[in-house]
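2024-03-11 09:14:02 INFO worker-7 job=invfold-0412 stage=load source=structure_tokens
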């Protein structure tokens, strides 16, 4: 579980990074919101913690920027005791100091349990059906809900050809299957998200005249 923690180093009395690292969490650290947003071009975190108390701000604008980039990723917002704020609609959890590091860990653990139920993994391919995040080797991407459904279907039956008609009926919920070019377009988008070379796919393969299959084996 990869956590993105936005926390300033200039306010040691309101920091949690050391405690979380001692607990064994995989942390990616950023000391301001703008840098944290830029990091999303390189990583896809399972959970975002914004320690606004350490940044000496209420954090609402920062939360909104992250929410616009990652609509389904859980966000924990930490605010100072004196902050005049009672709710943060874009955050999943609002925590007001003072509290112990263990309380923050408990909150993270609740999301970790939920995340595990939503995660699918086959070989190097990982999909989180809750956050719509997919990771394959060194590539990560945020999928649309329909692309997530499509990849989930392929991952539930690895190496088995799934007929085009079946995919179209179940994902698009229609009996009209005369024109499945929309399916082909979505498969192309999936390949761009996970394949090292989308023009020469090695993971999502075409069974000519039939359908598609996932060319990976469960470990």
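2024-03-11 09:14:09 INFO worker-7 stage=emit residues=219
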């Amino acid at each position: 579980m990869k956590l993105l923690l936005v926390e300033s180093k200039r306010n040691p009395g309101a920091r949690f990074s050391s405690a979380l690292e001692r607990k064994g969490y995989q942390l990616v650290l950023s000391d301001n919101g703008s840098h944290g947003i830029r990091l999303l071009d390189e990583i896809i975190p399972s959970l975002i913690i914004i320690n606004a108390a350490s940044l000496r701000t209420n954090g609402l604008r920062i939360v909104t920027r992250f929410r616009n980039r990652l609509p389904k990723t859980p966000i924990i917002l930490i605010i100072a005791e004196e902050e005049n704020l009672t709710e943060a609609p874009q955050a999943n959890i609002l925590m007001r100091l003072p509290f112990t590091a263990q309380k923050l860990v408990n909150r993270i653990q609740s999301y970790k349990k939920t995340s595990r139920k939503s995660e699918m993994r086959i070989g190097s391919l990982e999909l989180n059906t809750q956050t719509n995040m997919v990771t394959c080797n060194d590539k990560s991407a945020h999928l649309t809900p329909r692309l997530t459904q499509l990849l989930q279907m392929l991952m539930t039956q690895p190496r088995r050809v799934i007929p085009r008609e079946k995919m179209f009926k179940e994902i698009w919920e229609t009996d009209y299957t005369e024109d499945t070019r929309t399916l082909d377009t979505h498969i192309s988008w999936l390949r761009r998200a996970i394949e090292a070379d989308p023009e020469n796919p090695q993971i999502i393969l075409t069974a000519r005249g039939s359908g598609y299959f996932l060319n990976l084996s469960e470990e």
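2024-03-11 09:14:09 INFO worker-7 stage=report msg="The domain at 2-118 is CATH 3.40.50.2300 (Rossmann fold)."
2024-03-11 09:14:10 INFO worker-7 job finished
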